[in-house]
Amino acid sequence: MQVAIDGPASAGKSTVAKIVAKNLNYIYIDTGAMYRACTLIARDGNVDYSDEKAILNLIDQSTIEFKNEGNEQKVYVNGKDASIAIRTPEITENVSQVSALKGVRQKMVNLQREMAGKNNVIMDGRDIGTTVLPDAQVKIFLIASVASRARRRFLDFKEKGIHQDIADIEHDIEVRDYKDSHRAISPLKKADDAIELDTTNLNIDQVVQEITALIEKNKKN
Ligand code: CDP
Ligand code: CDP
């Protein structure tokens, strides 16, 4: 079973994908974390975020791995836990530029398909239903209003003891959504056969239930 969950920033993709994967014992693959890791690799290598050749060289010399530790999935870059480092505002601001590079996308899509292999997977991102797993049995496109997505992220940061202005978060979300939807290669777009789910007024449990029901229905068909 392959489940693809796409949608704009902070629609709740990773939160619900993680829960559904745990409940059903599927493998969860956070493709956004992989593009964030590429951005961190570029930053640490002091190369310009537009220098595709240099970034690809650095990626070739690097490792990006997911490790399950307790209830959490950690992202390791070159053997070091980078789970926090890939979510700083600096990486968030620049990830859309790096993820738009053709060579970077080619490498990551190949890796993602390899990771999906023959396992039951839930993969979340922007182009999973359209490009990475076009034959996925279940495709979901999660959306929510910009205001609710900014509020969710604000509360998420607050819980972690980080204060970020809600207007800045809203601005970042709008800019990133625009860049992700307007890039030339596999832009953020609902696959024709994806089911759109507006989560503006749904809590996490409700979204988990909806997605689980879609998977169960598909298993029966
Ligand atoms: O969690 P958040 O919504 O902030 O974003 P993310 O899923 O961590 O993705 C970070 C960025 O990676 C996105 O804004 C896209 O630029 C890029 N991305 C992509 O291009 N393709 C994917 N399949 C996943 C993420
Ligand atoms: O992965 P993506 O960027 O789409 O979003 P996320 O990181 O899973 O969710 C962003 C925040 O929204 C998290 O703090 C979730 O707990 C919260 N959330 C929510 O409040 N209600 C939902 N229906 C889904 C997510």
> How many strands, which pairing sense, and closed or not: the largest β-sheet?
5 strands, parallel
Unreliably modeled segments: none
User: What do the pLDDT scores average to?
Assistant: 96
Number of helices: 9
The separation of the N and C termini measures 12 Å
- Inertia-based shape: globular
Number of domains: 1
**C-alpha-based Rg, rounded:** 17 Å
Subcellular location: Cytoplasm
Protein name: Cytidylate kinase
Main location: cytoplasm
InterPro entries: Cytidylate_kin (IPR003136), Cytidylate_kinase_dom (IPR011994), P-loop_NTPase (IPR027417)
List keywords for this structure.
globular, Cytidylate_kin, alpha/beta, transferase, five-stranded parallel beta sheet, 8 strands, 221 residues, P-loop_NTPase, dCMP kinase activity, 52% helix, three-stranded antiparallel beta sheet, binds cytidine-5'-diphosphate
What does this structure look like?
The chain has 221 residues and is α/β, with parallel strands linked by helices. The chain has a single domain (2-220), classed as Rossmann fold (3-Layer(aba) Sandwich), CATH 3.40.50. The protein is 52% helix and 17% strand. It has helices spanning 13-24, 31-44, 52-60, 89-99, 102-116, 128-132, 146-159, 166-182, 204-220, and strands at residues 2-6, 27-30, 64-69, 72-77, 80-81, 121-125, 138-143, 195-198. A hairpin with a 2-residue loop joins β3 (64-69) and β4. The longest helix is centred in the C-terminal third of the chain and has 17 residues, at 166-182. Residues 9-10, 14, 31-33, 35-36, 95-96, 99, 125-128, 176, 180 line the site of one cytidine-5'-diphosphate. Its main location: cytoplasm. It catalyses: dCMP + ATP = dCDP + ADP; CMP + ATP = CDP + ADP. It is an enzyme of class 2 (transferase).
